[in-house]
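# step 3/5: fold
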Amino acid sequence: MATSGRARGPTQCRDAVGRLDSVGIRGEGRPRAVYGFDMRVTNPAGGPRWLVFPETFPREGRQLPAPGRGTVERLEAVRLAGRGRVIAVHAAGAGGFRAIYLPPGAKAVLNELPILADWTMPYATAKIEVIVAHEILIDDVPLSSWIQGSLVAGPDSDVSLASDPSAQLELAKPLAAGGHTVTIQDDCRTTAQAILKHEDF
């Protein structure tokens, strides 16, 4: 049975996550397993905002890795399969993240959002920090300038990160080899929690 997550954070940010459900695990197990989550999100701001999700859970007893707290080495943007239009931007690395760009008041259901875990211990629950940001910069350049085409999502979408994307957007210019700095200009941050499922998804 799905378990609804409860978000904590500033009033505006609490409205960003309506539901968080664990759907299972992929991989060989501990460490380096991938957990999947279904998440219902809303842009609570009066203007377009990025909703930013971690690529990897922080290591045990640490705050890293985490979005913007390290460099990234790869960048891609894909249009997700499903109902409506959502472009998922994925930056890989110690400061890696996944992000979607929602107009004000827009809602999206993200199915099977993957988050990597390096944990060595089994856990019953997991907390996910979701960032509401007005800008994301890579090497001080706005994220939208790195990618060709519009990144703005539709007003109401239900999409999957597990299915093959319906389209891949081209980069305006490739990331050069090596690490690239990430700056997340956030409005607020909230934390949602879910009971973990450990069966395959």
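# step 4/5: annotate
The chain is about 5% helix and 50% strand.
# step 5/5: archive (pending)
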